[in-house]
Design brief:
Blueprint lengths: L2 H22 L1 H9 L21 H6 L13 E6 L9 E5 H17 L7 E4 L7 H13 L2 E3 L6 H11 L3 E4 L1 H13 L11 E5 L5 H11 L2 E8 L4 E7 L6 E3 L4 E6 L13 E7 L10 E7 L1 E2 L11 E2 L4 E2 L4 E3 L2 E3 L1 H11 L2 E12 L2 E10 L1 H4 L3 H19 L4 E5 L14 E3 L4
Parallel strand pairs: 3-4, 3-5, 5-6, 6-7, 18-21, 19-20
Antiparallel strand pairs: 1-2, 7-8, 8-9, 9-14, 10-11, 11-12, 12-15, 13-14, 16-17, 18-19
The structure holds 5'-O-[hydroxy(phenylacetyl)phosphoryl]adenosine.
């Protein structure tokens, strides 16, 4: 859609969303009234800035259904987010919401390189998590053949992948890596499979991790983004250019703000992604603070899509570790580890406090071929890793090399950090 037409559609949908929220959700009515704002004040897309933010805490405070804008008789599906702390956030969908979501996911799958001739092995978890059913409905809408295998039981995954000739794998990047590892253990080479494409998301992963997965599985891998509070997977996805994720602007408005000043940052600058839903009925969200860190990529994409692009995610503001005043993201560590070689992409960051001083330990698995090597080789690897990590992160780091296959594998979202300061 030409950009000016898209903007017109966005304004029309924004105004409808603001009205829906104001008249149907007491939380929004109160928030608007507190700053003397009425739905009629939203006259242009720039007026988005006048609207109040919504946070995860707001959803929690209205647990479970207080943010819904429709009576329960119109809600046909409930999902919830995998909150690690406090109550999970609960999200609802009307029949129309489910329909839109299926359409968006079908669109996302196509953008990521899937067609109706594909056999999609959907290894995202089915259940309250939005990954499984989100991809499932999109795959059916597209007309592809979907295998609803869900996460786990990795050997069976591989057997099915081989026997049924799955061509597309959908799961978290950390699980894709684990599948590749088990495949290698079973003596199955990527050439023996029909797999050609992977649509991975639900957690941060680095560009180096993409290359590693692509190599090990012999596929092309794209990044897909979404969050339950906004709809689930299908908010944005990379196209074949693999240069940023296209956000489906006819359904979501995005801003990137400085999380402290709450003002928009310039394109190309990192900040927190804020999303406003434009078509959601059951749970409209206005300026939802995702806590996900990215930047808007200026310019147009070679694929021709006019949607705004955001860069692959650096992490979440709440995953950002502040160690001796320095900001550290697990994805920075991942990038270095994969760049250096000699280790496996399985790692853990352990943060602790000794006296007044914060410490960072990076536990990483040594590659098989090195593990049986002489002690000297390992010592050298450790030294190189320490020096590279310290120069990238700007703080001192302890590296602990551990035996292959000793760090817990993930079948869903990987846990990369243990922060003992919080325990
Ligand atoms: O993870 C939805 C999803 C399912 C996305 C399948 C993609 C594929 P939640 O469980 O609510 O929903 O978690 C949302 O996961 O705020 C991000 O912090 C993180 N996340 C999701 N996709 C990506 C990505 C699903 N591609 C939270 N890169 C979000 C980095 C991601 N982080």
């Amino acid at each position: 859609m030409p950009e000016d037409e898209l903007r017109e559609l966005q304004l029309e949908r924004l105004q409808a969303t603001v009205k829906r929220a104001f008249f149907n959700v007491p939380f929004y009515r109160k928030a608007f009234q507190a700053i003397g704002l009425e739905p009629g004040d939203i006259k242009s897309l720039d007026d988005l800035q006048k609207l109040p933010f919504t946070t995860k805490q707001d959803l929690r405070d209205n647990y479970p259904f207080g943010m819904f804008a429709v009576p329960m008789s119109e809600v046909v599906r409930i999902h919830s987010s995998s909150g690690t702390t406090g109550k999970p956030t609960v999200v609802g969908y009307t029949r129309h919401d489910i329909d839109v979501w299926a359409e968006l996911m079908a669109r996302a799958l196509v953008c990521g390189g899937t067609t109706r001739h594909d056999i999609i092995q959907n290894a995202y978890g089915y259940g309250l998590f939005t990954g499984g059913l989100g991809v499932h409905y999109g795959a059916e809408r597209l007309g592809a053949s979907v295998i609803p295998i869900s996460g786990g039981n990795t050997k069976r995954q591989i057997m099915i992948m081989k026997d049924y000739g799955s061509t597309v794998l959908t799961c978290t990047p950390s699980y894709a890596l684990y599948i590749a590892e088990v495949m290698a253990e079973m003596g199955i080479r990527p050439e023996e499979l029909k797999l050609r494409c992977g649509i991975f998301g639900a957690e941060p992963w680095s560009e180096n991790m993409r290359q590693e997965i692509e190599k090990r599985l012999g596929i092309s891998a794209v990044d897909i983004y979404g969050l339950s509070e906004v709809i689930g997977p299908g908010v944005g996805i990379e196209c074949q250019a693999k240069n940023g994720l296209h956000v489906f602007g006819d359904h979501f408005l995005v801003e990137v703000i400085d999380p402290v000043t709450e003002k928009p940052v310039a394109p190309g600058q990192l900040g927190e992604l804020v999303i406003t839903s434009l078509t959601k009925e059951a749970l409209p969200v206005i300026r939802y603070r995702t806590r996900d860190i990215t930047t808007i990529i200026p310019g147009t994409c070679s694929c021709g899509r006019t949607y705004v692009r955001v860069a692959r995610f650096t992490g979440r503001t709440d995953d950002m570790l502040i160690i001796r005043g320095v900001n550290v993201f697990p994805s920075q560590v991942e990038s270095v580890l994969l760049e250096m070689g000699g280790t496996e992409p399985h790692y853990l960051l352990i943060v602790d406090r000794q006296g007044a001083l914060d410490t960072l330990e990076v536990k990483v698995e040594v590659s098989d071929f090195l593990f049986s090597d002489k002690v000297r080789g390992l010592e050298e690897l450790e030294k190189r890793l320490v020096s590279e990590l310290e120069s990238t992160l700007g703080i001192s780091v302890k590296v602990t090399l551990v035996e292959p296959k000793t760090i817990e594998r993930s079948e869903g979202k990987a846990v990369r950090v243990i922060d003992k300061r919080k325990i």
